[in-house]
Amino acid sequence: MPIILTLPKIGVNMTEATIIQWLVNEGDYVEEGQMILEAETDKASQDIPTTRSGVLAMIVAQPGKTVQTQEPIAVLTEKDETLPEDFFVETGVSEKKMDVPAPAQQGHEIEMKKAISLTDSRIRISPVAKKLAKELDIDVNLITPSKPGGRIDKADVLEYARGAEAAGEEVIREAVTEQDANLIPLAGIRKTIASRMSESVHTTASAAIIMKADVSRLIEWRNGFKEGGKKVSYNDLIVHLVAKALREFPQMNSRIEGEHIRLMKEVNIGVAVDSERGLLVPVIRDADRKDVLTIADESRAKVERAKAGRSTREDISNGTFTVTNLGMFDVESFVPIINPPQCAILAVGSIVREPSVVDDNDSVSVRPVMRLSLVWDHRIVDGAPAAQFLQRIKQLIEQGETN
Predict the structure, then answer these.
(1) Percentage of the chain modeled with pLDDT above 70
(2) What is the mean pLDDT of residues 360-381?
(3) Which of 86, 134, 188, 251 is the most buried (most CB within 10 A)?
(4) Which of 108, 240, 260, 378 is labelled catalytic?
């Protein structure tokens, strides 16, 4: 009997995903646990497995469609089984809805118990065109695709809407104007970023301090790795030093849970990365237990996956503190937003050369300096200990190489 395969819930916070591409084709036999599609969830792009074995008889959720967890994405059949003529599945192109009973106790798929007649010729329409037609309250059955035998696309919907308007029907809305092309959907990772940043602004009592550090020895430390053929970034060195400071100031590595402050057992430092899909924060777990080279190797691999849109949920979960660096854009200092539910975030600016007084005789020397901005939740930590924490990071940076 045909089975409706639904979108499985991958992770506690996952509620929906946008289909990027299918990794298998209709007619292919898939094994339970096999990765069958790539989708963008609330945090990253990842491969989604099938929860049952069978022949992929029909793909329901086409690329570009956003699907809620437990909603249908495909139909599976047994080998040599065909879909019965009294079986209907929403293909993403019809306004009809599936008659879907409650999920079975085992698995996420749903066996169809009440069939609906399947028409001989289903309408083929792109997800974008379907959404637009719905917004304009247009019956897709009335639209003829511009290419004979092809599927209805956005241009076909717009053309029909303009024709209807000329006939005196009030179906044209803002969505059919040229401004439509300038609208970017607030979805996927961008939607998650918007939600989390709004949460941070409205729920934390953020405060900020800025401190300047001489990075002469930090530069020498990095150059030492470079001369030895080792690729280490300033971020890697700073993560190493911040992890050391967090062990000395555990309250900076904490979060609020109800009426309590939880001091986190692990020091997991996230490093903010700009990707094509938006801001991602790969996490270096147990950073206080790792040497610089281990941090560098792990960070490089996770950053590459983030920029390629291939971050795993493990890559970007369970951070306890965040480091963000805009120095490569000539930003000398900035005030970032706390990544909730973390207590604090450290912003790193560019390295600039400035005249500095270097001794008690007021001797002046031009030195490389970096500005560090610490933003923290004042509900958890007061100003003095926050300043002491930032001062300790400054001291570690100016000392250079550490064990």
Answers:
(1) 82
(2) 95
(3) 188
(4) 378
